[in-house]
Design a protein that fits this description.
The chain has twelve helices and eight strands. The protein is an alpha/beta fold and about 300 residues long. It has an eight-stranded parallel sheet. Strand 5, helix 7 and strand 6 form a beta-alpha-beta unit.
Length: about 300
């Protein structure tokens, strides 16, 4: 696989980055985070999740965030949904794209969505159909693609079969998510190549957590293996409320730096990403996990 000239990045900080934070972030600050991401060049942004607010209090203001943001030109606003009720809410709010989730592990799916793997595939297919019927688009993510906190190893062949079936529903792409941050580059390369072959010409998207320090290396392995879309979170925040020990997403600025220095375009302004990560740290009164937010870019005066 030859190195790509460009990679599309999806900003997931406003949803996956914030959802596991104990301190509730104001609607105004969430909207400001999204606007800053747009100013930094983000054109696909996961703005909120439409889930039970009792289970994920940070996302209780999903409709208010969408209303406050409006519909910026040229930006695809994505809403994560786990069932038809969530899809109805997201469509009613006017979002451009639904993000459905299928689970590769039965124990995780039952704890996270009240669905085993097979049921989650059925629900994801129905969510894609709802989006298409409403004139919108949908994406599908396969959670716990590389490992489960409860069941351990996940069979790659099962993930490939899931991806092939989900691709038939008509999403814009199928994503592989390392929900608990256990993947390593060799594993990523093998699975991305297998998925790319199973769903071509549909794109492969990847979603990595840096729980064990392999996140950015996994991004590069995925890109070399044929993934063309990468999720990342400004500041490196993130985690799943239902995955014990899951730490932050790969940081948008860390991934953008790695890709830019490797000759791969992302369309993102690295300096603005770093500024936004530092701003978010002040809002949340915490140090961001991001390495670039601490170290800064190289060369220092480069406009990347």
């Amino acid at each position: 696989m030859t190195q790509p000239r460009s990679i599309e990045m999806v900003e997931v900080g406003p949803r996956d980055g914030l959802q596991n934070e104990a301190v509730l972030i104001s609607t105004a600050h969430k909207v400001e985070l999204i606007r800053r991401a747009i100013a930094a060049g983000s054109r696909r942004i996961e703005v909120a999740s439409f889930v039970n607010p009792k289970r994920v209090p940070q996302m209780a203001d999903a409709e208010a965030v969408v209303a406050g943001l409006g519909a910026p030109e040229g930006v695809t606003r994505i809403g994560l949904v786990l069932n038809e009720r969530g899809a109805e809410r997201a469509l009613a709010a006017g979002l451009d794209q639904l993000g459905a989730v299928a689970i590769a592990s039965d124990p995780f799916g039952i704890r996270n969505q009240g669905q085993d793997s097979a049921q989650s595939i059925d629900v994801a297919e129905r969510i894609v159909a709802m989006a298409r019927a409403a004139g919108r688009s949908a994406q599908v993510t396969i959670a716990t693609s590389f490992g489960c906190p409860f069941a351990g190893e996940v069979d790659p062949a099962h993930v490939v079969r899931m991806a092939a079936r989900l691709a038939e529903a008509g999403p814009v792409e199928v994503a592989l998510a390392d929900t608990i941050g256990v993947a390593v580059p060799a594993q990523v390369s093998a699975l991305v190549r297998a998925i790319a072959g199973a769903i071509a010409p549909l794109p492969v998207r990847v979603h990595f957590h840096n729980t064990r320090g392999t996140g950015v290396a996994n991004v590069w392995a995925a890109v070399e293996a044929g993934a063309s879309v990468v999720d990342a979170s400004i500041g490196g925040l993130g985690g799943c409320p239902f995955a014990p020990g899951a730490a932050g997403n790969v940081a948008s600025e860390d991934v953008a730096y790695m890709l830019a220095r490797s000759g791969v375009e992302t369309g993102l302004d690295l300096n603005r990403l770093i500024e936004t990560a530092q701003w978010l740290g002040q809002v949340m009164d915490k140090v961001m996990p991001s390495m670039l937010a601490k170290a800064g870019p190289f060369p220092k005066q480069a406009d990347q």
